[in-house]
Specification:
alpha/beta, about 425 residues, three-stranded parallel sheet, globular, single chain, 17 helices, D-Maltodextrin-Binding Protein, domain 2
Amino acid sequence: MIMKKFTTLFVALAAIVLVSCNRVDRAHQLKVLNWADYIDEDVKAGFEDWYFQQTGEKVQLVYETFDINETALTKIEVGHEDYDVFCPSEYIIERMLKKDLILPIRKDLIPDSIYYFNNISPFVLDKFQQMAPRYDMKVSDYTVGYMWGTTGFIYNPQYVNREDLTSWAAILDPKFENRILMKDAFRDVYSVLVLYAYADQIERGELNRDEVVRNITKARVAAVKDILLRAKKQICGWEVDFGKEEMTKGKAWLNLSWSGDAQFAIEEASEMGVMLDYIVPKEGSNVWFDGWVIPKYAQNIKAATYFIDYMCKAENALANMDEIGYVSCAGGPDAAAIILDDQNDEEEWPETVDASYFFGEEKILVDGEWLDPHALHLNPVYYADKSTIDRCALMHDAGDSQEMLLEMWNEIKLAR
């Protein structure tokens, strides 16, 4: 009996010591939750040394990944997971703001000498502000943009003419039977096809794209469902990440997907001698964003703030963009010259794009040359022309309509 009491006491004391140690360790840990394959490994590896150089404090970066927004959010909202930094998509950020699940970013903790938050493009700041659940909320106080892009068609010019893809109606074309891949992302697909369904009213000025995408109604969901049912014979699969491989092998000819995946697929296919391209149809698309937030249950606010600032440093933003194939939200005055010094290339991109919406109206001095943001030699998959962006709308939190969209999506996928 005495031995049993001693054992129980020993276990209890050990537990107290373990908890105490964990608390000490947690104070010197930074827990980051990000999308898989969504950061340059050298940038990630460099944070701990950079943080020590700036603060004289050691921190251990604990880095985890996710592949579904909602699953990651559940860990925080329901599981009260103590992640310090999280990188969700715009509609999840909007939902978290509504539910008071994001802490304000303590930008005052960052010295002026390493203050990189101003590197974010005003275009991104404006789009993020559209997520505000209240008119008096400044969204940039709670989240900082990381990557952004559009949704369109990846296609193989060997089998498909670009002229055939100028409208989302391409998914209804019988000559593409069993040759179209659809991104398994019901919100993204709904958002672009609802613009196609109401294109005539939008063209006549009776509706605007932002309103059509934001306000999800039974009639609009039914219209998109009808389009997808009529397109079913053309759809050969619903993909999350295997679309690039299927396109490279020629098993699929076009893929409704994100611009970042398009760029990755184009580069990967090129190495195998296959040419792919990307287009945003005329009816318009969604412009999507992923951003950094500090969740409600974070424990290392200081390191979290430094990490987000570190990711805004122009050199780091550029390295991340080059590595993952998505476009950085960095494009403010201090970052524009560094980004354009790398991205603006007349030899590689002889056609110009109007990227003034992103880099601003004023000319930018790059390596001794003044560049006009209205006519830059940029990769059009990365930086769509202003005429395309003007036709794009921001996705929003579906709120109570979420179940209606999900039900529609499941019915489409099960239909024969």
